[in-house]
Structure formats: structure tokens, C-alpha cells
Design a protein that fits this description.
Blueprint: H1 3-26, H2 28-35, H3 39-61, H4 67-90, H5 97-119, H6 121-124
Transmembrane segments: 9-27, 33-57, 69-91, 97-116
Keywords: Membrane, Transmembrane, Transmembrane helix
Length: 130
């Protein structure tokens, strides 16, 4: 993948997190009912997505992307994917099917992001050795 295209993955990553976070915040009650999860759980998901999105976008727009900061982003994706799996198992009996599917898809999405970002972290970095 070219350097230009790989930079776009950071924009996609950050935009996805921020948009999901904002939508969950704005539609908190509706999503809580739709997913059959508590409002506090939806607020947790919203906050984590929004914070992650801001961090990823700050990297995307940064002129100085260090490998260690990209690695931190990748680690956050891996942790979030594991948390999504944990939430699906924990809420299997109480959450709605649509809630479980959306959380599962988010986990799959961030796993793919982590994979592509890891494989291309050198291209994503603007520094050679950090």
C-alpha cells in the first residue's frame, strides 16, 4: 500500500471512532433501548470511542508521527477488540441481538485496523527511528 493510502487509514480510524462516539452520546437513550444495555454502558462506549477518535485523528493530522505513538494506537485497538469480545460474552443473555452484532462488528473492525496499522507502522510514521 502506498504511503498516501496508508495515511488515510488513520483518518478512517479516527473518524470512525469519533463519529460512533458522538452518535452514541447523542442517541444514548435510543441506543440503550435498542441494544438492551444500560445507559451507563452506552455512555462508556460513547466516551471511549470519542476519546479514541480524537487521539487517532490527532495522529492522522500530525506532521510528526512517532512509531511509539502509532504502536499505542494499535494497542488501544487490540484492547478494544478484546473488550468487545468480553462485552458480547458478558451480555449474551441480556443484550439484544442487534446490540451483540454491533459490538461484535466493532471488535472485528478494530482488529482489522490494528492488523493493517501494525503491518504498516513504518509507513505511518513520519520518523525513521523513534
Amino acid at each position: 500500500m502506498s504511503h498516501f493510502k496508508m495515511e488515510n487509514i488513520l483518518h478512517l480510524d479516527g473518524s470512525a471512532g469519533l463519529v460512533v462516539g458522538i452518535l452514541l452520546l447523542l442517541l444514548n437513550d435510543w441506543v440503550s433501548h435498542l441494544y438492551s444495555l444500560s445507559t451507563s454502558m452506552i455512555l462508556f462506549l460513547a466516551t471511549m470511542n470519542a476519546c479514541y477518535g480524537v487521539y487517532a485523528l490527532s495522529l492522522a493530522f500530525s506532521k510528526n508521527r512517532q512509531i511509539r505513538l502509532i504502536t499505542l494506537l494499535i494497542l488501544a485497538n487490540i484492547i478494544w477488540a478484546a473488550l468487545c469480545c468480553t462485552l458480547v460474552v458478558y451480555y449474551m443473555q441480556t443484550a439484544s441481538m442487534i446490540g451483540l452484532v454491533f459490538i461484535s462488528l466493532e471488535g472485528i473492525f478494530v482488529t482489522f485496523l490494528a492488523y493493517f496499522e501494525w503491518r504498516n507502522k513504518g509507513l505511518l510514521s513520519t520518523q525513521n527511528n523513534t
